[in-house]
Design goal:
The structure holds two protein chains of two kinds.
Chain A (H helix, E strand, L loop, with lengths): L1 H26 L2 E9 L9 E4 L5 E3 L5 E6 L5 E5 L6 E4 L8 E3 L9 E4 L2 E4 L7 E5 H4 L18 E4 L10 E4 L12 E4 L2 E4 L11 E7 L2 H4 L10 E6 L7 E13 L11 H19 L26 H4 L5 E12 L4 E13 L6 E14 L4 E15 L9 H7 L16 E2 L8 E2 L1 H7 L1 E20 L2 E20 L20 E20 L7 E24 L14 E24 L3 E12 L8 E12 L12 E15 L11 E3 L2 E3 L2 E3 L2 E3 L10 E14 L4 E13 L2 E5 L8 E5 L2 E17 L2 E18 L6 E6 L3 E6 L6 E4 L2 E4 L3 H6 L11 E3 L16 E4 L5 E11 L2 E11 L2 E3 L3 H4 L49 E3 L2 E12 L9 E15 L27 E10 L1
Parallel strand pairs in A: 1-7, 13-16
Antiparallel strand pairs in A: 1-4, 2-3, 2-5, 5-6, 8-9, 10-15, 11-12, 13-14, 15-16, 17-18, 17-54, 18-19, 19-20, 20-21, 21-24, 22-23, 24-25, 25-26, 26-27, 27-28, 28-29, 29-30, 30-31, 31-36, 32-35, 33-34, 36-37, 37-40, 38-39, 40-41, 41-48, 42-43, 43-44, 44-47, 45-46, 48-49, 49-52, 50-51, 52-53, 53-54
Helix pairs in contact in A: 6-7
Chain B lengths: L1 H12 L27 H26 L6 E2 L15 H4 L7 H26 L5 H26 L2 E2 L16 E2 L1 H18 L14 H14 L3 H9 L26 E5 L13 H5 L6 H4 L11 E2 L1 H6 L5 H6 E2 L2 E2 L5 E2 L3 E2 L16 E5 H16 L3 H13 L10 H15 L6 H8 L2 H17 L28 H6 L10
Antiparallel strand pairs in B: 1-5, 2-3, 4-10, 6-9, 7-8
Helix pairs in contact in B: 2-4, 2-5, 4-5, 5-6, 6-7, 7-8, 7-13, 8-13, 13-14, 13-15, 14-15
């Protein structure tokens, strides 16, 4: 019996073995292959396919292909991949199974970078806008600030001028300070680099940008958070993927005719001069006409004007090229993940002889030393060079082209550039702008090294410690040589012609910025319902800037444009710096994914503040309620997520000078005994009480997702109160000083932000659109001290006034009522001393019957703050094509077009705008629309035409067709041909506006002297063609 | 695990990172803190030098308020650039209103200088390291400067704010209001008397340019004269006579940079040109006609400002044979094209210099000739035109190669002295104060209107067809003082304004 059983067993075993071999043989026989793609058709590498119930499985290759041997045609494949919904696919005897994975509806697993860490998107209770570079697409950008334009509600990005390589101005939730700066804090990979991101960060190295808007998210940055925080994260390698990509973008820039300012040409200008002469002659001689011989020969016969020069065109580069090349190698396999990136950007400016180029290299490495320790190192080196020109203001290169005499040629008879155009017939003389651009050498070179290093140690389960050290070293070198051949703009007869004394200037500023963070985070395991994490941290930062400068003048010739060759030389050096240290803590808690709570506290000390107020506390708290998870909420299929959130926090602003609370001695020297006697005087009052500018912000938000995230809607309403504003208050001069810094004043910013993200699929077309709109109102609530108004600006150049009860930066001037037609009208009106028929009529604000020739009768004539700003993105893709269009605009705001005080100066000393043909000339000939707000008074006398008045205020509401990109993914015939995408892009394509200037965002004054346009570097339109290749 | 503990301990120890509070204390390494200064005599002397340094800035624009406002000078009218109309030009056309930027700068500069004087005086009197013998001349110089500034201020504005101590907090400034002129004048007198007591008669060559006893005496004499205290004026001014001053034989030597601080000079504001120290003056460039380029200045690539142009009225006032006329002014110049341009200009501060825009000329504040004429005036008012009074007047006239005058009656003598002051001290910033001192506000307005009528009928400089505004050249009695700057009243509403503005 035993034997029988044993032999049976043996048989069974053998049979089993045989069967298993056979099965194995059969398994080896049924090969299943296929490709796993995402819903865009892109191959997904690293996807796991498993035969259900077994351990038989495989993963897809870099192209998404897989190959698996199954024992039978039955069974189910379980296909899973992080971020995608797991699918179960029955084999059904197929040998080729292609699978498309859909994005996980719970892709709110997505993690967003926030201050000092990351947070799951679903847990965020603060107002945070996350921008991923993929959403932005191919935008030709030399500076990272260009990428944020139009992308996030509440963030207004203005391009003040078109200088190649320059930063744009970023404002988060309005201007909240009158005294300290209004720029947000920029943080690169966790390193707060300051209120300027500089020109040296290559936008192609960026993976995502998060903008922290409310106090709950920015309070963790303490006294630098009140203007918002822009978190920039550079690229990191994707898990398991190796990728080499190369992109090349080539484009041209120019100024379209619709955005050029039109002035008179040669014959028209001669005609204008003739008319002006005749009008003046008639006025002085009581209506008598001049004889032809009495008209100066220079414009007696306008039709015979020999030359006609368009100076503005002469300085423009007809098609300025730019090129952007980037090579990125990203390796996500193995214990050390790395991203290596090289970039080269080169741009010719739209004004000739200006350019910008930059070369950058980056290595981002992260490595697992063992299970407990991870280290990371980001190292970036960039070098940029800029050739600059002086382009701001009416006497600079751009402004002067509008007012120079068009009857003068650019070149002389031999074909050489004329260095100086001497004024004729009373017109001002000017240096030839083309000559200036070619001969004045102004260069700026900036070399940057930015490095972040950290060590993450997992001390216990859930307890992590990170120590990080960051450093940024910048060398910024500027040099300038103005040769003796450059003249000055002067009135006729005065001497401005070359040769003049040549000057040279050079400076080098070295900035060292170092910071160290120690962060301890603890995330206890509390089961599925509770999610809790704590963070405790300590950070210290120090910045020092050392400057060395030299200047020289009186050179023997222009052959050696270096300081050593000048006969009179002087040099100087200086040093300045600041330090800060802070203790931070934060707790995040969520219960059942339904109730969310977050609180943070930062205690910060800064060297910039008075001894009595060195430290400040910055708490913040925010809560969220996921209504869609509540049991009482009916489970609608279309409702994916509904979350309400509220936050409150206190942040600060420390952006005043480094040593403002101290009083120093300034030099005030004399001569005694015929020798130099050095002396000192006191510079300002010391203020030991100088403290933070405080901002309290309350924010309410709503996040709504519908139809499995096809529609995502976000709304915010906020109120930010800034008090203890750091202001130079005017104090009575009898104190010895005219102003002193103190913490006074209060400003309120409140607003609403709405953003919508909609994506859908219509047939074979994927369609996405995302509009956003921001309404922000600011109001000055108090300016303590004895004055309620702060005036900035000038009598002839436009005033910006800060007044209690009104928004920041209101434009002030005389209110224009019309143009005086006759002497009778002048006599009937309040006394305007010096007014003659043709003068503008102004309103008597104080009602005393006299228009006084100072600011007493000046009132609000414009509001530079828009009613709302908006952006709207459309993108669609169809098979291999994709198209994306971005619109953006601002509505209902004013700009003081200061340049028109010169370009509409009809004294005859400058060239004038085309529309001068429609000016008032006499009661019988008042122009087609003399009652128009911006009509030009015609006046024989100079008075009452150039004073700050409403005549120069224009509504700059506009709509930009900002970006249009058309892309095409080249078909791949063979697997060795790399993934290539080519794209066409048009940037700044159309501007729809009534504003007469080139750029409705132009402003040459800084700070809160808003929207004063005196011409600056024009903003071009760009067309480009590029390709991105993934190997 | 051991390895892990070791590493974590090591890293936690890294947290002991500059927890020092000193980490947050930084100061500007390029400047000295004011609380650290004024510790010893050398530093106080530097502070005094600083006070003198501010005098240069104030003197650079003083002509606008002391000469330009009068009938001595006008401007080289620029028909195409009307940018200055609301500012400095208003002083010529008597259209100064409280919003005028130049008045505001004047006020601010004076009080800034007074702050530093007060600060230095406080530190001096509280100092234990400086001995009294060294303190006296330093205090004397500071008090003279204070008195000089307040004397100018009351003549400019009438009642002004009197500040003799420094404030520790800016808020306290709001309580400071205008004191009656008499109070300020009492302070001036006190300061000058104390200065006289402490100042030396002379300094060695290394200290040439400092305030001397003679300067304090002369200023006090002028002060008494302005207050119509003729007896005191005479006694005070007579104390200047034995101090070693004398008239230069050559009138031109008073202004020659090669002969600075000479025997006739009582107090001059010091400058130095020809180098890069930043201590140069440039009066020539401000006073030369706009289109003269290098014809007057000697450097072609410059644009002079055309301010302070001698009027026809003044040119006509010089008697024939007066050597001072040609030294003080010229009636025209030859431009680069060789044409004669009949625009007159101030010649007193025109001397050769090596670097463009940097002249070496000092500015005379007090000269011995001034003292002699003041004595003549005071004696006349006190006891009539005595021999002695005539003597002083004639000393000045003789130097100018003019015939002496004899036996004039009181009124004519008075006019003669005023006229002599006009031509002797032309363009030295005396005329406006002389007119204010010798005329009542109503008389002054009448006088200036008469001048205006002449100037309008026959302008010294062609206006290029630009007509006068109706308010131009209309003098009213209240305009004998300037308005308090509007920004100051905006800041402190309690500050009062002068009548009429």
């Amino acid at each position: 019996m035993k034997d029988y059983l044993q032999s049976k067993l043996r048989h069974l075993l053998l049979l089993q073995l045989f069967l298993s071999f056979a099965a194995g043989a059969w398994a080896q026989n049924i090969a299943v292959t296929g490709r796993v793609t995402d819903d865009k058709g892109e191959g997904l590498p690293g996807v796991t396919l498993l035969l259900k119930g077994t351990t038989n499985g495989t993963t897809t290759d870099p192209s998404g292909n897989y190959s698996l041997n199954l024992p039978s045609g039955a069974g189910t494949l379980v296909v899973s991949f992080i971020g995608y919904a797991t699918q179960e696919v029955p084999v059904n005897n197929r040998s080729n199974i292609n699978i498309t994975l859909a994005g996980d509806a719970k892709a709110l697993e997505e993690v967003v970078v926030v201050g000092y860490g990351t947070q799951r998107k679903r847990d965020i209770t603060a107002a945070v806008s996350n921008i991923s570079m993929e959403d932005i697409g191919e935008v030709p950008a030399s500076n990272v600030t260009r990428l944020i334009q139009g992308q996030a509600p509440g963030v207004a990005v203005k391009q003040k001028n078109g200088t190649p390589g320059s930063q744009f101005e970023v404002r988060v939730r309005g201007i909240s300070s009158l005294g300290a700066g209004s720029n947000p804090l920029y943080v690169i990979d966790g390193f707060p680099v300051g209120t300027s991101v500089g020109q040296n960060l290559n936008p192609n190295e960026i993976e995502s940008i998060t903008i922290l808007k409310d106090a709950a998210s920015t309070a963790i940055y303490g006294a630098r958070g009140s203007n918002g925080v822009v978190l920039i994260t550079t690229k990191s390698a994707k898990e398991g993927k190796v990728n080499l990509s190369f992109s090349a973008d080539y484009g041209i820039q120019n100024i379209p005719d619709s955005r050029k300012v039109t002035v008179l040409n040669g014959p028209e200008f001669a005609q204008f001069k003739k008319e002006a002469f005749i009008d003046r002659y008639r006025y002085v001689n009581n209506g008598k006409e001049p004889a032809l011989e009495e008209i100066p020969l220079g414009f007696r016969f306008p039709e015979q004007t020999k030359y006609s020069t368009n100076w503005y065109d002469a300085i423009l580069n007809k098609n300025a090229p730019y090129a952007d090349y980037n090579l990125t190698l990203s390796n996500g396999k193995g214990p050390v993940k790395s991203v290596l990136a090289l970039g080269y950007f080169k741009e010719e400016g739209t004004i000739i002889e200006t350019n910008y180029d930059r070369i950058s290299a980056r290595a981002n490495l992260t490595g697992e030393v063992n299970k407990f320790i991870t280290v990371g190192l980001n190292l970036n080196g960039t070098y940029s060079r800029q050739r600059l020109a002086n382009t701001d203001g009416r006497s600079a290169v751009v402004g002067s082209t509008l007012i120079m005499d068009p009857r003068e040629p650019i070149y002389d008879d031999q074909g050489n550039l004329r260095p100086y155009i001497v004024g004729q017939d009373g017109v001002f003389g000017f240096p030839n702008p083309v000559f200036m651009l070619k001969n004045i050498n102004r260069k700026r070179n900036i070399a940057d090294v930015l490095s972040n290093a950290y060590v993450d140690i997992t001390l216990l389960k859930g307890l992590k410690f990170r120590t990080a050290a960051n450093a940024k070293v910048t060398f910024n070198n500027y040099n300038e040589y103005v040769p003796s051949t450059i003249g000055l703009p002067v009135q006729q007869g005065a001497s401005g012609a070359p040769p003049r004394i040549a000057t040279a200037f050079e400076d080098m500023v070295q900035t060292y910025n170092l910071s160290a963070d120690q962060l301890l985070t603890y995330q206890p395991e509390l089961g599925a319902e509770h999610h809790l994490d704590f963070m405790l941290g300590y950070t210290a930062q120090k910045e020092t800037a050392r400057a060395l400068s030299g200047s020289a003048n009186t050179f023997p010739d222009d052959l050696v444009p270096y300081l050593g060759a000048g006969s009179i030389r002087s040099a100087g050096s200086s040093e300045a710096g600041w330090t800060l240290l802070a203790y931070l803590s934060r707790v995040n808690y969520s219960f059942k994914d339904r109730y969310l709570f977050s609180a943070s506290m930062r205690r910060e000390g800064s060297s910039r503040f008075g001894t009595e107020n060195k430290y400040g506390n910055f708490p913040a708290v925010s809560v969220g309620w996921r209504l869609s998870e509540e049991s009482f909420m009916p489970k609608y299929a279309w409702l994916s997520d509904l979350k309400l959130r509220a936050s409150w926090g206190k942040t600060g602003n420390n952006d005043i000078g480094n040593y403002s609370h101290l009083a120093f001695m300034n030099a005030s020297n004399y001569i005694l005994g015929n020798a130099f006697a050095p002396g000192k005087v006191v510079s300002q009052f010391a203020n030991s009480e100088l403290r933070w500018e405080k901002s309290n912000q309350l924010d309410l938000g709503l996040d709504l997702s519908l139809l499995e995230n096809k529609i995502v809607f976000t709304a915010e309403i906020y109120r930010k109160l800034t008090n203890d504003m750091l202001l130079p208050i005017a104090i009575p001069a009898v104190s010895g000083f005219t102003s002193s810094l103190a913490n006074i004043g209060e400003v309120e910013n409140k607003g609403v932000e709405l953003g919508l993200n909609f994506n859908t699929r219509i047939g074979q077309v994927n369609f996405r659109t995302s509009p956003n709109i921001t309404f922000n109102r600011n109001k000055i609530l108090a300016i303590k001290g004895e004055n309620d108004m702060l005036w900035f600006g000038g009598f002839y150049g436009g005033y910006n006034v800060q007044k209690v009860g009104r928004p920041i930066g209101m434009i002030y001037g005389y209110r224009k009522l019309g143009i005086f037609n006759t002497q009778a009208e002048i006599d009937a009106a309040p006394k305007q001393d010096g007014a003659i028929p043709g003068s503008m009529k102004f309103w008597d604000a104080d009602g005393n019957g006299v228009i006084s020739y100072d600011t007493k009768d000046m009132v609000e004539i414009g509001n530079p703050n828009p009613s709302f700003t908006w952006g709207w993105n459309f993108s669609a893709d169809y098979k291999k094509f994709d198209l994306s269009v971005l619109f953006m605009g601002a509505q209902n705001y004013d700009v003081y077009r200061n340049i028109e005080a010169s370009t509409m100066n009809i004294d005859g000393v400058f060239n004038v705008l085309d529309k001068v043909k429609d000016r008032w000339r006499s009661p019988e000939n008042p122009g087609s629309n003399p009652n128009h707000k911006n009509s030009q008074g015609g006046t024989v006398d100079w008075k009452w035409s150039r004073e700050s008045s409403g005549r120069y205020v224009y509504d700059a509401s506009h709509i930009w067709v900002k970006n249009v990109t058309l892309g095409y993914a080249l078909p791949r015939f063979k697997s060795y041909i790399p993934d290539t995408r080519i794209f066409l892009n048009a940037s700044n394509l159309f501007l729809i506006t009534n504003y007469p200037g080139n750029n409705p965002d132009a402003s040459i004054r800084g700070g809160n002297e808003l929207n004063n346009d005196d011409e600056s570097y024009p903003v071009p339109r760009t067309f480009s063609l590029g390709a991105r290749i993934n190997f | 695990m051991k390895k892990l503990t070791a590493i974590s301990i090591f890293l936690l120890s890294l947290m002991q990172f500059s927890c020092d509070d000193d980490f947050l204390v930084t100061t500007d390494p390029t400047r000295v803190g004011s609380e650290l200064f004024y510790k010893d005599q050398k530093q106080v002397e530097q502070a005094l030098n600083g006070v003198y340094g501010q005098l240069q800035g104030i003197t650079n624009t003083a002509y606008i308020f002391q000469e330009f406002t009068s009938d001595n000078t006008t401007l080289d009218f620029n028909p195409v650039d009307r940018g200055g109309a609301a500012g400095w030009e208003a002083f010529e056309f008597s259209t100064v209103n409280s919003g005028n930027g130049e008045i505001s700068n004047l006020w601010n500069n004076y009080y800034s200088a007074l702050y530093n004087i007060n600060f230095a005086l406080e530190k001096l009197s509280g100092s234990t390291t400086i001995d009294d013998a060294a303190k006296a001349p330093l205090e004397g110089q500071l008090k003279f400067m204070r008195a000089y500034y307040y004397f100018n201020l009351v003549q400019y504005f009438g009642d002004v704010v009197l500040v003799t101590t420094t404030l520790s907090k800016p808020d306290a400034a709001f309580a400071l209001l205008r004191s009656p002129q008499a109070e300020v004048e009492a302070q001036i007198e006190k300061d000058l008397k104390e200065a006289i007591a402490g100042l030396p008669d002379k300094y060695n060559a290394a200290n040439a340019g400092r305030v001397t006893k003679g300067a304090a005496l002369s200023l006090l004499g002028k002060f008494y004269l302005t207050q119509k205290k003729y007896a005191e004026a005479v006694t005070t001014l007579k104390q200047v006579l034995p101090l070693g001053y004398a008239l230069n034989l050559n009138y031109a030597d008073n202004f020659d940079p090669a002969k600075k601080n000479g025997v006739e000079s009582i107090f001059e504001v010091q400058y130095q040109g020809g180098n890069d120290l930043g201590e140069q003056s440039n009066f020539m460039y401000v006073f030369a006609p706009r289109l003269s380029g290098g014809s007057i200045t000697g450097f072609a690539n410059v644009t002079p400002s055309g301010r302070n142009i001698p009027t026809r009225d003044l040119i006509a006032a010089y008697e024939t044979g007066d050597v001072r006329k040609d030294i003080s002014l010229k009636e025209g110049y030859t431009n680069a094209k060789g044409e004669w341009v009949p625009t007159p200009f101030v010649n007193k501060y025109r001397h050769a210099h090596t670097l463009s825009g940097r002249t070496d000329n000092n500015w005379p504040i007090l000269r011995f000739a001034d003292v002699l004429l003041m004595l003549a005036e005071a004696l006349n008012e006190q006891s009539g035109p005595t021999e002695e009074a005539h003597g002083y007047l004639n000393q000045v006239r003789s130097r100018a190669k003019l015939p002496e005058v004899r036996g004039l009656d009181k009124n004519i003598f008075r006019q003669k002295v005023l006229q002599e002051r006009r031509v002797e001290l032309a363009f030295e910033n005396h005329r406006w104060f002389d007119l204010k001192r010798t005329k009542t506000p109503a008389e002054l307005a009448q006088f200036m209107n008469a001048y205006a009528a002449k100037e309008k009928a026959n302008p010294t400089v062609d206006r290029g067809g630009v007509i006068y505004s109706t308010l131009d050249y209309v003098y009213e009695p209240h305009e004998h003082v300037f308005p308090i700057p509007a920004p100051q009243i905006l800041i402190n509403e309690k500050l009062s304004q002068n009548q009429g503005y």
